[in-house]
Amino acid sequence: MAGARQAQQWLLTLLPAFPVLLLVLRLWQLSQQDMSTMLLLVQYVSPLGLLSALLIALVWAFPVVVLTFGVLGRLLRLSAPERFDPERSLLASGTARTPGWVISAAVALAALTWQLRFLPSLLMLGLWLLALRTRYLHPDQPTRILFVSVALPLAAAVLAYSVLGPAIWTAFRQGELATAALLAVPPAATLLLTGPIPGWIAPALTHGLAFTVAAVLPVVMGAVFLRVPLLPTAAVEVVPKKSAATTPEVPASTAPDGPAPRPLESTNSAAPGAPGNGGTGTPDGPPSAADGRQVVLGALITVTDTSTIVLDRTATVRFLPNDWVESQVLCPQAAAVPYSLVSVGGWPVEETALDWMMPRRPVADPDIRCEGRLPGTP
Fold first, then answer.
1. How many whole angstroms separate alpha carbon 72 and alpha carbon 74?
2. Most CB within 10 Å of its CB: which of 10, 89, 100, 310?
């Protein structure tokens, strides 16, 4: 009794810390491991924006957890009922306390948020859950068990292969073996776990797979979230202006046309010509006109009373005086380059049903400033 409850208490204690850890790691990675930059991001980045990015990027993980552990727990309960102890096993406790509507909601959410190439796996998991639940609740109805455990998976496999057959063949011809396996294997595997397995191996197999999923899934979630943008990408057009606040005093012995001060301030004291230097005419810096006009492209952190703070493409924080800002434009996120060219009826296998149903963003000519170039330049 103490084992399952103690493990559950530890899980409930540590579970809220995992999203916080992901957010901190994302900010640490975004700041290029510079503590000052990270503290600045923590000060200005909205917590609601961080949580929204986390939710959108990892919404697919909830169905993975619910469906995978649901199948393993029900398989353990059906195969080795004497070892199914909710007071001692965390897997058994979660299975016994998970209502059916949570399983249904997880299936619906997965159908919307999983890519097309993972939907055959969703079909497999859903049929496994249905068959195992039917065998447990209605052991005295062989006709019903036969229909749910054999006839329904067989019909689903035939229907799936009739729809996915051309896509599977295309994936094989193009050498996309992983895509072909994700489309071809799950429909046939629906007949494998619709009933109990030998009781002597069930506890070790189910708990071993549960521990494997619990160890691998956080790593996958972290790898996905570390690629999610947290700040809006903006192109800021600046025109350095001389004023008493920005131009240092020139000694009387200095020629009037002496070297001009650096037009843009930065948190990094880069040498002239080095990346991140705000001066003009540097080989690695942003393009600039003869009057010092230039485009700073990067992640927009915030706009204060005096400065527009931007994290540029060299991970340098730039404080641009607001009276220097000529214009700024929000740059749309670049679309991900598709890895697979396989589609099912015009539906790319890397798109989700939610992406497929939502209206497409109208295609418009990109703003030239989002390319780091000044308006009017070739």
1. 6
2. 310
pLDDT, one tens digit per residue, over 219-248 is: 999 888 888 888 888 889 888 876 544 444
Contact 317, 42 (CB under 8 A): no
* pLDDT tens digits along 101-146: 999 999 999 999 999 999 999 999 999 999 999 999 999 999 999 9
Q: What is the pTM of this model?
A: 0.79
Tokens for 210, please give them. 């549960």
Q: Which residues on neighbouring strands pair with residue 237, listed in sequence order? A: 295, 327
